[in-house]
Amino acid sequence: MNDWVALGQFALNGLFTSSVYALVSLGLVIVFGVMKIGDFAQGAFYVLSSYLVFTVEQYAGLPYGIAALLAVAVIAAISWANGQLVYLPLRRVGIGQTFIGALGVLLVVISVLTLIFGTDAQTVASPWGSYTIRLGGIAISAQKALVIGAALVLIGVTAFLLRYTRWGKALRALSQNEEAAALTGVNPAATRGLAFVWAGVLVGVAGALMAPVWPFEATSGTLLVLKAFAITVIGMGRVRGVLLGALLVGLSETMVQAYWSAQFSDLIPFALLALVMLLRPQALGPDEGRSAPGAHQVQQAIRWPGTVYLALAAGLLVLLSPWWAQMDNFWLHLLILMGLNVIMVSSLDLLTGYAGIPSLAHAGFWGIGAYSYALLMMRWGWPFPAALLGAASISSGAALVVSLVGLRLRQHWTSFTFIVGVIITMLLTDFETVTGGPNGLIGVPAASFVLPGLGPIILNPFRDKLGYFYLVLALVLLVLWIKRRIVRSHMGQALVALREDEGLAQAVGVPTERYKVGVFVISCGLTGIAGGLFASYLTYLNPQFFTFEKSFNLLVMNLVGGSASLLGPVIGPAALTLFAEWTHAFNQSIAEIIFGLLLIWTLIYLPGGLIAGSRRIMRKIMPLAPASLPK
Amino acid sequence: MQRLTRRNFLRALAGSVVGTSLIGGWSGAGWGQAVAPLTVGVLLNQSGSTGTGENKLIEGIQLASDVINEQGGIAGRIPVKLVLEDGRFSPVEAVNGANRLVNRGDVGFVLGPLLSVQALATQPIFAAAGMAQIFFGSAEEFTQQHESAPLSLRYSVQTSIEMAPVAKYAVEVNQQKNFFVLAQNSDAGRSYAAALRAALKQVGGSFIADPEFYPAFNRDFATLMTRVKNSGADALLMGTGIPVEILGALEAYERQGLNPDQVGFYGGIALANENFFQHAGSTGRADGFIFPWIFDDGTDPRDFPRTKPAKQAITMTQAFIQRFGHPPTSEGQLTAWGWGGLQLISTAITGLIAEQGADRLAGMKPVGELPRAAIGYLLEGAAPDRPGRTLQTTFGDLGFFSCGQADILVGAATYKHGTRWLLRDRKWAQALVPPLC
Questions:
Q1: Of A119, A132, A220, which is closest to B48 when you measure between CB atoms?
Q2: What is the DSSP letter of B316?
Q3: What residues in B contact A119, CB-CB < 8 Å?
Q4: N or C terminus: which one in chain A shows less Cβ crowding within 10 Å?
Q5: CA-to-CA distance for A586 and A441, rounded, in angstroms?
């Protein structure tokens, strides 16, 4: 094969990949227009469509074409139902909650598929057999050609619908200004309903057509939808933009594989997205939106003095110290991990709850802190306390760079942090000379320090669980105290103003940009401390600890526990740790289905989280004096 | 014979908690009387991408446990009780599972994990607790860390063992010397690439280009396979253990019009994986692909004189047929791993009883003392360059090197007309295997 023929083959491969991305991205664009969220559940619907084709062919014996049509119809219906039952109720609560809800749906569907079909890869026979279309030395399977053709047709149909039909115009109006659209006679409910259906059709077609092309298993759609989300943002939320974005990403990925290294091909869409965000942030479309104001009213209804909380907690912990000493080692282990989560969620809450700028990069900064600690100890022989502070500093430094760069984005901050988190994880995996790469780092030193009067103390994380517990506990209390100080300070008030109405805050002279940078740096610094502690406790690091799933879990803990509070970020990790322990003997898929459903329920019916729910109960038991209630 | 269902496991767990508290642990119950069982922890993934395969491992362990208990227990007197912890394909869950096992206080032996990242994360936990660990991961680091984890044994192969017959067969038999390597961007993938390179160097083969490390779970190999075709390579290595990746690569390989005569398709033991066998091996799509074989129960057709298979292999296969009505599937090696792991523990304890007497062993603490004695028995006479005591296992008669690596050799195999076919025996490529410690 000569070089030009090879280039032609790569270009055709890239066109095929772009087609798949375009189909899924279009679905995201449609939902984004009405819901203002990245609908990650589409990733699950994509692979569900493939499984439906497989099931109908295998068990009903129907031909591929009929199976595919049935799959598309079912996915369209499921997408509509998901929109009505999950997204619309969550939308009333807030954008962040809706986004988490979408991830919850993704988790539930993946778990159901795993429960039914197991983890083995499945394949569907191509209806064309091994028929391959050849043009000179360039080859493509008939099914892949069909995918390209279908993508072009559906892109055209979607563009036509959006431009020339009543529904399309209504959708565009709704995405611009919902209230104004309603005043002009647009029916928001019907428009949204059709949007969910059409998005389901698009992703259903993608999954059905791809079933005979690639082997699939339950999680096959997850990375695909992440890339499609990146393309949606690159494409500025418009059909033409998505088409161009999909072409750009698909071709770039292919060319990177062809002429550079397959190792970096997954980084491409995210790096491109970051580039677009940086160079043309003003073209990224409507505001991500903030959490609905109502979501915070419940927290503000009762404001008990945090200092009292902390003092009580510290006193209680001291009194109970003989009990800790008798505690089962496994529960001490769980409490240690829970304590680390409390530190991270508390620091995240400064962003999510107080500043209203949720971050999906926290696991990445946790990883930066962990690896920094390990390298400072192992390569440069730093003592433990200095290495821990070094970890915090390096995480803060990285956060400073990220925030200075990302602040230009303003409205798409959360999306940007998501990209940053993904990139950090990939970098931890790929730069093995520094991080050990996929093999990880073994033999990370444990905690050791000198206490006045007690001399040097070296904690063995496997034998000195109690010592580690006290260490983590001390740092938890310290972090909670720091958070409390920040919240009660001028900075804290500025953050709340920023959250409620950034424009107004700026108008009255609050330097919002400076405070956003400041809170992000502080938050990531505290997370870096947790990373160092984690590294010292486990004595082994691997990039697999610091993935997007962990960032998602932290955000879930924050929302479930209750944001913009001192205790919410303590209750959230506690609740999820206990839940995980309660379900550890269950089949994992069943446990995740229960978790996903409970998560969605909590987001809808306890919008302020568990802390808000408990406060409602306490209010009934102990009504407050009138002066304490909000005006 | 009870299957290890969740209900039975929970019942057993409850019973063990009560039983342990009543008996008061290990010591004090002489082995001439009613005996406290030997509690063995199993830390493997029942879910996640490797769940299907690891459940076969668990199946083998359970089968061995049932057979041992039917015979009255280890040495005819010590029943085995299994405690299963699901690693859930997560290193953190594996750490939690390890901590649960340690916390029980009655688990002296652990089988697993399989995944390297989980094994690396849990090895120091078990080492600190004085628990013996027989694991199945392939990362090179294990044997390098043996000093800090002297009670850990690897009853599995390293990639350097796997790649030895693959390299030799490619170059000396198939005359295919120029390899293009596609490997997962993970510790396993990189290890495969390095091991193949080292083996090829000894037989006159080489890489035609730098290995391509693709992201894990990649299924689209169209572009990479175009590069393979365009490179002039006459052999391709798929350095991964994940079936969905191999199936994706196979699809692209076929679409490029490639066949094993033009560009040989070579891989590790994952080409014997049940999922791959179902979709490719048994359908003839993988005819001519070359991969290492580990487990032999004497039933596969072969190109070399049939030797008597390992006694443990026959016993295991017969027990499997009796239980399930059919022989182990193409993943017999996974079942054999599990069976063999538990049998090693049984062998050690039986041997110690024979050498030191039952009473002496009965007086040993189940955590720390007994595991140390057992591992010491298995490693007796071992050196870095010479395995110790010869043991009967599912993979033949073998010993362990002093760094904890089993002296397992593998042969070369292929598929012919949808059936596994053994091409060369275990010792054929022995000279290419580097020092393992």
A1: A119
A2: H
A3: 47-52
A4: C
A5: 32
